[in-house]
């Protein structure tokens, strides 16, 4: 293609391909990728910034990593208590020591905010149609198996959202590749995290009991897990009442009305009048003085409007775009 346009690849300032890893070490691609991760300088300072709860969890996990005897942890904490912050501190410490750590999460969004994070289904080759007794789709000789064998620590965030059968499939597969059939996860140190107050495993047309039965709490592995709790809400430090309110709702201790519903305080609600002004008022409330703050990154990243359906998202986005000053520019692309 380049030659047809009178060009050569040397005409472009592309970095040279370094094949030394493949030729001299013969390591699988998965191990080369994990070994090549560069730890950000700011992340190396994260362990010094942990609060008391996070510090306690950090020390217990790192002691298990250092002993190499294998432990299974579950970090239980509502949103905002700093689970991801703790994971990043662990990642930086283990990788900074030259060891391999595997960072995964149930959802792509959660995986994307961890350095070199991957979804658990992608990293562990978990079957899409998971059943009781299923194994992960990798062999003992595969790069994935060798990566897990070499890993000093494995993290799986948002495990509360996944079906227990997926976690059990990883457990049985790791017992097999590690040659330790009696040790959970083959004797590896693994950290699960999540919040059972939030989204649970999705069971198509499932009843409450079926959904509960699919959670990790119903797994034979649950009793093997050391529980580490995070309670202090770091995101809502300036609003202690709201943090406590969220915790009461999540724990099911908030008062309900006669219909069994929880009433939201009026000061955090926007009245719905059932007309076209509702969306305009919502935007004005969440994004006041929008055009005056468009160049302020902190203004933009500190607020958002969430919706349950894509069609509503499109409506909100169109309304927002209509408010932007300036001329509309149309750019055409071709495949």
From TrEMBL:
Protein name per UniProt: ATP-dependent DNA helicase
Gene: P0707D10.43-1
Cofactor needs: Mg(2+)
UniProt KW keywords: ATP-binding, DNA damage, DNA recombination, DNA repair, Helicase, Hydrolase, Nucleotide-binding
Family affiliation: Belongs to the helicase family.
Organism: Oryza sativa subsp. japonica
Top-level taxon of the source organism: Eukaryota
Entry annotated with the keyword Lipid metabolism: no
Pfam families: PIF1 (PF05970)
Compositionally skewed regions (Basic and acidic residues) per UniProt: 18-31
Lineage: Eukaryota, Viridiplantae, Streptophyta, Embryophyta, Tracheophyta
Domain DNA helicase Pif1-like DEAD-box helicase: 49-257
Disordered, as annotated region: 1-31
Reaction equations catalysed: ATP + H2O = ADP + phosphate + H(+)
GO biological process: DNA recombination; DNA repair; telomere maintenance
EC class: isomerase
E.C. code: 5.6.2.3
